[in-house]
Amino acid sequence: xxxxxxxxxxxxxxxxxxxxxHCGFCLPTCPSYLLLGQEMDSPRGRIYxxxxxxxxxxxxxxxxxxxxxxxxxxxxxxxxxxxxxRYAPLIEETRASIEHHHERPLGERLFRRLxxxxxxxxxxxxxxxxxxxxxxxxxxxxxMLRLLPRRLSNLIELAPDATLSGMTASVPEHTPASGTxxxxxxxxxxxxxxxxxxxVNDATVRVLAAEGCEVVAPSGQGCCGALALHSGRDEDxxxxxxxxxxxxxxxxxxxxxxxAAGCGSTMKGYGELFRNDxxxxxxxxxxxxxxxxxxxxxxxxxxxxxxxxxxxLRVAYHDACHLAHAQGVRQPPRALLAxxxxxxxxxxxxxxxxxxSAGIFNLVQPDMxxxxxxRKVEKIDEAAPDxxxxxxxxxMLQIGAAGRAAGRSRPVYHVVELLDASIRGERPPLS
Length: 431
Hints:
single chain, alpha/beta, five-stranded mixed sheet, four-stranded parallel sheet, 9 strands
């Protein structure tokens, strides 16, 4: 397919491309460039291809698509860019153009279709995930794992240790504040978070309530659309977003709190997502202005209501890309960890480099993701922590899987889980 038609929507963002001066500051921060060493697998190389597509000098081919598929969408390039290039809308619009105008091989189409029939729907995901209660038995047969198709063995390696009670748990729709309420907040319970990390949602609600928040978790909420948007399924993303906006509008909350970095970065960009929709644009902008990561809300209070009990731990904090790079939130998680007496934060070398999770990247590009996970675990090992803390379920899955592959049993916690343990006077398990 040739001509500029496939890139008509992308053409609206040409001024963003023109801000790139091809200086190369993004190169050492880009995971795909670090692994592959190809200019076309770097942010500036991809922007060159975008520009060529808009100008009609490049068609959508398998080779071109491959270079965009290696992008993790981690946005480290945005942090590094001295010209302020906004890469996120560029890569999202390009991927949408690809999915609308390019037919992938049958196996790839079927695999991606399966992912999006499951991941954004917690009820379906629970049914699919039921066999995971036996996952450790399967992992005990490495020879059998090696005989399975790579993507299937990768799913088994990534899967968390799961319990039936954990996968079916839910948080109350309404939780009163401890003392006088100083804020009414709505909580996104998520998809993967709801099924595999219900303990994070529980901790989020407990800590918010302990700090004086009236917490609302609407039972009818669905997916935020993050995985769909990052994979080029823009219409699906908008459909999910409309439902979520309407749900939280009915909840009459001051702030919408998110404990998953990838979801938060997408929700904060709803105004951009609906920029061409006159019906939803204003509602989307009003909604995304109220979205906050849970660490932003908790660290933003001038005074603490809930006392912290000491926890003697060395904690390596991993910056989730969609919190640090996409949202620019770095200090609040560290401030919350620092508020716990006895806890020591140890830095991770090359901490700005992605762990390899990146939405569905570790599912569709398992080998690249595994290499990035291995590198991350090596850097964590150098820091010699007792536990790892982060702010995104994908990172928790990825670092946990990479640790198991390296023979490590070091636990990975969400920051809010450690804060919850301190408030409750408990020590988090170290295995």
